[in-house]
Design goal:
There is one protein chain. The protein is mainly α. Helices cover 70% and strands 1% of the residues. The chain has helices spanning 9-16, 20-28, 47-61, 66-73, 79-110, 114-124, 128-143, 151-157, 168-182, 184-204, 210-223, 231-241, 246-256, 259-272, 281-297; strands at residues 36-37, 43-44. A two-stranded antiparallel ribbon has the order 1-2. Strand 1 and strand 2 form a beta hairpin. Helix 5 (79-110) runs antiparallel to helix 6 and helix 6 crosses helix 9. The longest helix is centred in the first third of the chain and has 32 residues, at 79-110. The radius of gyration is 33 Å and the shape is rod-shaped. The N and C termini lie far apart (109 Å). 22% of the residues are buried.
Length: 298
């Protein structure tokens, strides 16, 4: 070491950015051992020690505990295995932070009460199985006991699938959707819609979804900006009333034309990463007004 006296602790501190106290602590613990000592007893470190300190600093900054760092330095643990385990732990922490961020963001936007924020936090923390049970219960309330052949597929299309690593907006959407799914009034609304769809099929023998029927029939009128009280609108109404009884259709529109239904499907699209759905509200409102206008002029 005469030609290469090595580095003093002060020189290592300047090169690594660590404090002298920290380097001495690592040295005393045997994590980074001196390669020699001067005649006066001062510790000297070689280039291997410098490289080890750089690694120790990196591992500590990444959050590894000192015991794990020592195992890596002593080659008792493979760095790749340690990195994999730490990565998995970080992914859990990231998911937790995303949930917290989403809940706090939603609470700030909505001006939530402490009770509402507590509920949102509880909903956000549900496991995948708990989320599935919540939605299965909602869908069973909506479609249970009805034998419409299309309801099984509709229930599947109404099921949210929150990713393992969701974005903040997906978590926020899940919290709101879960709140809707647990709301007794919304459950009752969706049940009434399902029962009316089932009754339409049984009584009239309709094979087509009435919602799709209205959307497709009214869409050209909306695009052409046809007034609901005009003769052109009467033709659209005539097409629909040939397939649906007017009184039943009005009752059905009054039920289904609820903004919460649209909101459920908007939130579902966010959670599942789907394209935003087209709102049915304009078509439903147009038809409702057209039916009433036609009655007044009849």
């Amino acid at each position: 070491m005469d030609d290469d006296p090595g580095y003093s602790i002060g020189e290592l501190a300047r090169r690594t950015g660590l404090t002298v106290k920290t380097i001495r602590f690592y040295s005393d613990r045997g994590i980074v051992a001196p390669s020699s000592r001067t005649s006066s007893g001062h510790r000297r470190y070689d280039t291997d020690a410098l490289a080890q300190l750089e690694l120790v600093r990196t591992l500590r900054e990444l959050g590894l505990d000192l015991a794990t760092v020592r195992k890596v330095i002593d080659s008792e643990a493979a760095l790749s295995d340690v990195a994999t385990a730490h990565l998995q732990a970080l992914e859990v922490q990231i998911r937790v932070l995303r949930l917290r961020h989403a809940v706090l963001t939603a609470a700030a936007k909505r001006g939530s009460s402490p009770e509402e924020m507590t509920l949102m936090h509880q909903l956000a923390k549900l496991t995948q199985d708990e989320r599935r049970r919540l939605i299965d219960d909602f869908l069973a309330t909506t479609f249970g006991g009805l034998d419409h052949p299309g309801f099984a597929g509709l229930a599947r299309s109404m099921t949210p699938e929150l990713p393992d690593s969701p974005e903040a907006e997906q978590v926020q959407a899940w919290v709101e959707l879960a709140g809707l799914a647990q709301d007794p009034d919304f459950r009752a609304l969706m049940r009434r819609i399902a029962e009316q769809l089932d009754t339409d099929r049984a009584d009239v023998g309709l094979r087509r979804d009435p919602i799709a029927d209205i959307r497709d029939t009214v869409a050209p009128a909306l695009e052409s900006d046809i007034d609901p009280g005009s003769p052109e609108a009467a033709e659209v109404v005539s097409v629909l009333t040939s397939r649906h009884r007017p009184d039943d259709l009005l009752d059905w529109l009054d039920t289904v034309n609820d903004s919460r239904r649209d909101r459920y499907f908007e939130l579902l699209a966010v959670i599942n990463g789907w394209a935003p759905p087209e709102s049915l509200t304009p078509a439903l409102q147009w038809l409702s007004q057209a039916l009433r206008d036609q009655r007044c002029t009849a």
